[in-house]
């Protein structure tokens, strides 16, 4: 793999993701479009934090872009994080997971994506990116032992 981009920007990639929980403690999961990296895998909606942007602000922006709903920074709570190992070829990722129970609007997936509400005990059966496996386990513990 061409890793010259790492020399230009060696920083860790910061990604924020949201566990949107309904009143039954089901969580909204999103399936990535097939034509993107990690296509077809189920993930927490979210995305990359942009330069000079705070994580909670990035989450509000990404959730509006991806699901067409509004959330407020004051309603998101950090839950846990996961980090990939540096391998010298791809930029390491730190993935911050937040929870939120309040939103305005009806979630609609982006073209090519899909969404679904899942009991947290069912998350283990979904095909997910590797970093999401420990996040899903932590979320399940959280909703069962708040
Ligand atoms: N949103 C999200 N990204 C995740 C999760 N797990 C995981 O490994 N990732 C990775 C996939 C991508 O490498 C990166 C997020 O990239 P993205 O493509 O979703 O971000 P973005 O919306 O800002 O994308 P872009 O089109 O602006 O490039 O984090 C997850 O649960 N949610």
From TrEMBL:
E.C. number: 3.6.1.55
Keyword set includes Protease: no
Domain of life: Bacteria
Keywords: DNA damage, DNA repair, DNA replication, Hydrolase, Magnesium, Metal-binding, Mutator protein
Xref: InterPro entries: MutT-like, Nudix_hydrolase, NUDIX_hydrolase-like_dom_sf, NUDIX_hydrolase_CS, NUDIX_hydrolase_dom
Annotated GO biological process: DNA repair; DNA replication
Alphabetical list of PROSITE patterns matching this protein: NUDIX, NUDIX_BOX
Cofactor: Mg(2+)
Domain Nudix hydrolase: 10-141
Family indicated by similarity: Belongs to the Nudix hydrolase family.
The protein's name in its UniProt record: 8-oxo-dGTP diphosphatase
Lineage: Bacteria, Pseudomonadati, Pseudomonadota, Alphaproteobacteria, Sphingomonadales
């Amino acid at each position: 793999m061409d890793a010259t981009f790492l020399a230009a920007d060696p920083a860790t990639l910061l990604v924020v993701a949201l566990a949107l929980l309904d009143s039954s403690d089901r969580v909204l999961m999103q399936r990535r479009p097939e034509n993107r990296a990690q296509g077809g895998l189920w993930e927490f909606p979210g995305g990359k934090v942009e330069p000079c942007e705070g994580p909670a602000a990035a989450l509000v922006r990404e959730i509006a872009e991806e699901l067409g709903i509004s959330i407020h920074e004051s309603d998101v709570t950090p839950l846990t994080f996961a980090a990939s190992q540096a391998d010298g070829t791809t930029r390491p990722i730190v993935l911050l997971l937040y929870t939120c129970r309040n939103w305005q609007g009806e979630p609609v997936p982006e073209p090519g994506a899909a969404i679904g509400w899942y009991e947290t005990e069912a998350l283990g059966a979904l095909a997910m990116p590797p970093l999401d496996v420990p996040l899903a386990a932590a979320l399940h513990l959280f909703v069962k032992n708040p």
